Amino acid sequence: MTRIIGQLDGADGPLNGRLFIKAGGSFIGAPDKELVFLIDNGKVDIELPPCPPALPYLVDYRERGDMRRLAYVERWRIKAVEEMSLDEARGLVYGTVQRREGKGDAIEAMALRNELQEVQEQKTKLELRHAKLLRKLGDAECRAAAAQAQSASLSAALMKEKAKGMAPEIVIEERVVEKRVTKDEHRQELAEYRQQIELLKQRNAELEQNASAMVATTTHFTNLHAEIDRLNSEKQQLLLRIEELKNPVRRSSSLRNEAIANLNKLTDG
After folding, report:
1. CA dihedral in degrees (86, 89, 90, 96; nearest 10)?
2. 132-171 per-position pLDDT tens digit
3. 178 falls within a domain
4. N or C: which end of the chain has fewer CB within 10 A?
């Protein structure tokens, strides 16, 4: 077993969550199932069986409460040594042990750098897309709230107008009563009555105007529907006429005249 020690940072600093590791293929000592390690304050101190360079471990990690699907974006290569650093396992630095420098090592290092760059670009794109989706969600929620408020306001206005239209028309006949006014309070009471009568007259006039407008609107819509029906009927007639012109049906009289003309041509010939 190889001991791996180091510091692992998440998106917002030292990782506080779980580290998920699984073998990248079958090799001697490979774990049968996924390994999960608890990480506090980014400190990593775990042991793993060494793996061949061509079959690295697949690694991913999540903060506490992060329920996203695992992508296993990192590849860890564990050497057959007693202890190695986390950065060396991740391919970020080279260890102090002796290595055989050669073309293969250079190619492997270049592949690791390219893979790390691709992973970082993919992470940046995902973060930008996530922020964009959050902005879209916020805008959609604002528009929905505004539409709901507008709908409620329109519904209240329509209900108010409907209540006004359904209110019974109140007509109060003015009765003239001859009475000798001798006190100021009687004069004031009479003035109030007259004011109420004027207000009722104005209300009746408004109701009559609204009723006339409703009747005119209903008549207008009725005329529009009648005009639409007439235009649809004319359209159907035109379509039938076009079909008749495309596929003309010859009458029996024209066929008989054509046959007689053909017989005359044969006889003259």
Report:
1. 80
2. 677 677 767 777 777 778 778 777 877 777 676 665 556 6
3. no
4. C
